[in-house]
UniProtKB/TrEMBL annotation:
Residues 811-822 have a biased composition (Polar residues). This is MMPL family transporter. It comes from Pseudoduganella rivuli. GO terms for cellular component: plasma membrane. InterPro entries: MMPL_dom, Mycobact_MmpL, SSD.
Length: 822
C-alpha cells in the first residue's frame, strides 16, 4: 500500500519542473522565486555589509536610560538635579583596614592615595565627591569659645600621634559615624557621584571601562593593608558586562543543542545548516543595523539576539519540514519550496507580526532602556521575515534535502498507511484531545491550573525582592561587598531622599522645620529605615551640643534666630544656596519593593495632609527614591502592556483566521501560560522590574507562533471537509511535530542558562524554558480541546470540499493564494 503523494492540502504536486507554471502563485512569490539568484546575491551582500557594521556595536548602559523620565517623582528630581548632585548615580567604595582601627597613620595615608586616584578618574563628579580627605567633610563642635568647625582632617595633619588623635576627635564630632565611617571604626567610605558623560571624550560614560578602573584600584591597594568593597549602579553594570563572555558560551551551547536536535530529527546536514545559518544571519542583520541607527546593547537587552535566533529556528524548521515532506512525495525541490512558501508564508508572517507586536508594545513603558529593547527586538523580527520566510525557502530550492531525509519525514504517514491505519502512539495520544471526554478533561485541568496560578500571581511583587543586586548571584563579589556595607554602616547605599520646596530664603523657617521634623520622625519608625538626616535633625543636635549635651534640649527651639544661625553653618547637602530646597535623607537596609512602598505611602500621605502654598514635600531622589518611581511605572505598565499585546495578537489572528472561534482556540493557551508564568515568578522569588518586565510580553508574542502553525493547517483541512481528528492529525504531521521539536529543543537550550554566573540570565532561562514548553503544550493539547467545543465540524461533500478548498492556505498552483475564510 502506498501513501498519498498529495500535499497536506490534498493537491498533487508536479514532479517535473518543466510542467510547473512559473507564473502561478502570488505576485510576491513570482517576484522572489523567479529571481532567486538576485535575492540570494542581495542577501549575501547585505550580510557582509551588516556583519562589518556589527563590529561597531557598543555594549554599555546608562543610568538615565533606566529611569522613567516623565514620572512626576523623576521630574522633581531632574528639575532639582543641580542641587542634588550625587543623589542619583553614584559609587561607594568602602576601605577597610586590616588592623584594628582606621585611626592609624598608615591607613590614613593609603586612604588619601585612594581618594586622590578616584578623584582623578574620568567621569567622577569631583565637586561632590566625599571622603575623610575631602574638604567638604567637616565637623562642628561647641566649645567654651562658642561654635567651632573645620575639615575632619585638618590642613596641618602630619601623621603624628597627636594629629591622628585630632582626626579621631573631629570624626566623632562630624556626625559621620555610620555614614562615612563604619560603626565599628574599621573602615570608611569614599562617596563618588558620577557624571552622565565622560568629560574627556564627551561620550556617555563607559561603565565597562569605569568598572575596570575600579577593579584596578582594588588590585593595586589590596596589598597595602586594606580591603576595598565597591557598590553602585556602575559596578553592577560592569560586573554584568564582564559576565557576558560566559553568557555567550551559554548562547553558543543553546545554538549547538538546537542544531544537534534538528539534525537528529532530519538526518540532513545541509538543510540543518541552512536553518541555523539563516537564523544566525537574522541576528547579524539585527546587530549590524543597530549601530547604523545609533543604538547599542545593554546587559538587559543582550538576551534579545538569542530570542531572535530562537524565533528564527522555530520558523525555519517549519519551512524545512514542509519542503522535505513535499520532496518526499516526489515534488521537485523548487516546486516544494514554492508550495511551502504558499502554505506557510501567511501563518509565518502573522506569527512574526505577533512577535513584533509583543516587542513593540513595550514602547508604551516610559523607560528608555525598555523602549530601546523594543526597537532592538523589532529590528530582529523584521530581519527574520526576510531571512527565514524568504531566503531560507529560496536556498532550499537550490540545495534541496537528502533523499533519505525526505523519506524519513513521511515515516509516520507511511506507517499509518501500511500498518492497518495505526498511528504513532504519540499522535494517538494527542488525538484523544479532539474527543469529548479528553477535551473536557484538558479544559478542566487548564481551568484548575489557571485559577491556582491566578491566586498565586496575586502575590507577585513589583521591584527587587532581594538585597544588593538581584541580577547577580547572592555570593557574587558585588553582593558580598554590598553586604559588608549594609552590615557596617547605618547609612547604606540605598538612599531615599525627599525634597522639601520652600519660598526663597525660607528653608530655615521654624514652621517648615517643624513639618520636616514630623515627617522625619515618621520615616525613622518605618521598618527598613536605618538612619535619617535633615536640617531639622541638625538643629536638634546643635541645640543639644550647645547645652552641654543634655538630651533635655534635644528639640527644636522656638527661636528663629537660633535656627538661622544653625542653618548658616550647615552642610550644603541639607539645603541649597537660595535656601528654597531642603533635602531629607532616609538610609535604608535594602531596596526591596515592600520597603520602598512603605516609604512612598508614608510621604504621600504626609504631603497630602501638610502641603501648603509655602511648603511642598516632593518625591523622590536618591537611588532608592528613583527605584521607587521606576517600580510605580513598571506596576502601571505591566498589565496595560499585556492588554495591548493580547489585543494586537487577537486582531492579527482574526485577520488571518477570519474566525473568532479559531482566535479563542489560539489565544486561551497563551493566557494560561501568562498566568502560570507570573505564578512561577512568585515561586522563584522574581519581582517585576525593568529587567524582567519584557519577558512577560515576549512570551505572548513567541507563544502564538506555535498556535498559528497548528491552527492554520487544522482550519485548512476542516474547511476542506475533514473531521477534527483527521484535520488535527494532518496538522501534527505537517507542522505539529516541528512545534513539538522546537518547543522542547529551545526549552532545553535556555534551561542550561541556570548554570550561568549571572543570576539575571539564569532567571530568564527558567522563565523562557517554561514559556517555550507551556506554549508548545497549549498548542498541542489545549488548542484541539478548545477546537472540539468551538469549531464547527463539517464532513465534506465533494462540492462543498471543492468550494472550501479555495480558501485554504495552499491554493491550486494555477491560482493566487487566498486568505482563509470561515
Amino acid at each position: 500500500m502506498s501513501i498519498d503523494t498529495s500535499n497536506v492540502d490534498g493537491q498533487l504536486a508536479p514532479h517535473d519542473l518543466a510542467a510547473f507554471d512559473r507564473q502561478s502563485g502570488s505576485l510576491v512569490e513570482r517576484v522572489l522565486f523567479n529571481n532567486r539568484l538576485v535575492v540570494v546575491i542581495a542577501c549575501a551582500l547585505l550580510t557582509v555589509l551588516l556583519g562589518w557594521q556589527a563590529t561597531k556595536l557598543r555594549l554599555n548602559a546608562s543610568f538615565e536610560d533606566m529611569i522613567p523620565a516623565s514620572h512626576p517623582y523623576i521630574a522633581h528630581y531632574l528639575k532639582n538635579r543641580s542641587e542634588l548632585s550625587g543623589l542619583g548615580n553614584a559609587v561607594r567604595i568602602a576601605v577597610e583596614t586590616k588592623g584594628n582601627t582606621i585611626y592609624d597613620p598608615a591607613y590614613l595615608a593609603t586612604l588619601q592615595k585612594i581618594s586622590d586616584d578616584v578623584f582623578l578618574l574620568p567621569g567622577v563628579d569631583r565637586a561632590y565627591m566625599k571622603s575623610l580627605w575631602t574638604p567638604s567633610t567637616r565637623w562642628v563642635g561647641v566649645t567654651e569659645e562658642g561654635m567651632e568647625g573645620g575639615p575632619v582632617i585638618p590642613n596641618d595633619y602630619d601623621g603624628s600621634a597627636a594629629s591622628v588623635a585630632v582626626v579621631r576627635m573631629n570624626t566623632e564630632r562630624s556626625g559621620e559615624i555610620g555614614q562615612l565611617v563604619s560603626l565599628d571604626g574599621r573602615s570608611s567610605i569614599l562617596y563618588v557621584p558620577l557624571l552622565a558623560r565622560d568629560p574627556q571624550t564627551g561620550q556617555p560614560l563607559d561603565y565597562t571601562v569605569f568598572a575596570g578602573r575600579l577593579e584596578q584600584l582594588r588590585a593595586k591597594y589590596q596589598g597595602e593593608g586594606v580591603n576595598l568593597y565597591i557598590t553602585g549602579f556602575a559596578k553592577v553594570v560592569g560586573d554584568l558586562i564582564d559576565g557576558l563572555k560566559q553568557v555567550l558560551l551559554f548562547f553558543g551551547a543553546a545554538i549547538v543543542i538546537a542544531a544537534a536536535t534538528l539534525y537528529w530529527y532530519t538526518r540532513c546536514s545541509r538543510s540543518t545548516l541552512l536553518v541555523v545559518a539563516c537564523s544566525v544571519v537574522a541576528v547579524v542583520w539585527q546587530l549590524g543595523i543597530l549601530p547604523a541607527l545609533g543604538y547599542g546593547l545593554d546587559p538587559y537587552s543582550v538576551l534579545v539576539p538569542f530570542l531572535v535566533f530562537a524565533i528564527g529556528m522555530s520558523h525555519g524548521a517549519q519551512k524545512m519540514n514542509g519542503i522535505m515532506q513535499d520532496i518526499g512525495r516526489g515534488a521537485h525541490k523548487v516546486i516544494a519550496a514554492r508550495y511551502t512558501f504558499r502554505r506557510l508564508f501567511l501563518a509565518g508572517l502573522t506569527a512574526l507580526l505577533c512577535d513584533a507586536v509583543g516587542f513593540a508594545v513595550l514602547m508604551i513603558i516610559d523607560i528608555k532602556a525598555i523602549q530601546d529593547l523594543a526597537i532592538v527586538a523589532s529590528i530582529g523580527v523584521a530581519a527574520l521575515i526576510f531571512t527565514n520566510l524568504i531566503l531560507l525557502p529560496i536556498l532550499l530550492s537550490y540545495v534541496g534535502v537528502s533523499a533519505q531525509a525526505a523519506q524519513r519525514s513521511l515515516r509516520d504517514e507511511l506507517r499509518d498507511a501500511t500498518v492497518d491505519g495505526l498511528r504513532h502512539p504519540l499522535w494517538r495520544f494527542l488525538d484523544l484531545f479532539t474527543h469529548k471526554r479528553w477535551a473536557a478533561l484538558a479544559l478542566a485541568v487548564a481551568a484548575v491550573l489557571g485559577a491556582a496560578g491566578y491566586a498565586a500571581s496575586l502575590q507577585l511583587k513589583i521591584g527587587d525582592l532581594d538585597p544588593g543586586a538581584p541580577e547577580l548571584r547572592a555570593d557574587s563579589r558585588y553582593n558580598r561587598d554590598n553586604a559588608f556595607v549594609v552590615r557596617h554602616y547605618a547609612a547604606s547605599s540605598d538612599v531615599f531622599a525627599v525634597m522639601v520646596k520652600t519660598p526663597d530664603g525660607a528653608c530655615s523657617r521654624l514652621d517648615i522645620l517643624q513639618k520636616a521634623d514630623a515627617l522625619e520622625w515618621e520615616l525613622a519608625q518605618l521598618p527598613g529605615v536605618e538612619l535619617t538626616n535633615s536640617l531639622a535633625l541638625l538643629n536638634r543636635r546643635v541645640i543639644t551640643g550647645m547645652n552641654e549635651g543634655s538630651l533635655k534640649w534635644y528639640d527644636l527651639l522656638q527661636n528663629q534666630s537660633s535656627a538661622n544661625m544653625i542653618t548658616a553653618g550647615a552642610p550644603r547637602g541639607l539645603y541649597n544656596d537660595p535656601c528654597n530646597l531642603l533635602t531629607m535623607y532616609a538610609y535604608l537596609r535594602d531596596h526591596k519593593a515592600d520597603t520602598l512602598s512603605r516609604l512612598v505611602a508614608t510621604v504621600e500621605r504626609f504631603a497630602a495632609d501638610n502641603d501648603t502654598q509655602d511648603v511642598q514635600f516632593q518625591l523622590a531622589a536618591g537611588s532608592a527614591g528613583i527605584e521607587a518611581a521606576t517600580n510605580i511605572v513598571v506596576k502601571d505598565a505591566s498589565h496595560q502592556m499585556l492588554y495591548w499585546v493580547y489585543a494586537a495578537v487577537v486582531l492579527l489572528c482574526l485577520v488571518t483566521f477570519r474566525s473568532w472561534r479559531a482566535v479563542v482556540c489560539a489565544v486561551v493557551p497563551l493566557v494560561l501560560t501568562s498566568i502560570l508564568c507570573e505564578a512561577l515568578m512568585v515561586a522563584l522569588g522574581i519581582g517585576v522590574k525593568v529587567a524582567t518586565l519584557p519577558v512577560i510580553a515576549l512570551g505572548v508574542g513567541i507563544g502564538i507562533d506555535y498556535a498559528l502553525y497548528v491552527m492554520s493547517i487544522m482550519l485548512a483541512r476542516m474547511r476542506a471537509g475533514d473531521s477534527l481528528s483527521d484535520a488535527y492529525y494532518q496538522a501534527l504531521q505537517f507542522t505539529g511535530k516541528v512545534v513539538l521539536l522546537t518547543g522542547v529543543t529551545l526549552a532545553i537550550g535556555v534551561a542550561t542558562w541556570v548554570l550561568s554566573p549571572i543570576k539575571f540570565q539564569a532567571d530568564m532561562g527558567l522563565l523562557l524554558a517554561f514559556m517555550f514548553l507551556w506554549n508548545m503544550l497549549g498548542a498541542l493539547v489545549l488548542l484541539p480541546a478548545l477546537a472540539y467545543f468551538l469549531l464547527p465540524r463539517r464532513q465534506g461533500a465533494a462540492a462543498q470540499s471543492a468550494t472550501e478548498q479555495s480558501a485554504t492556505a495552499q491554493p491550486p498552483v494555477t491560482s493566487q493564494p487566498m486568505t482563509m475564510r470561515n
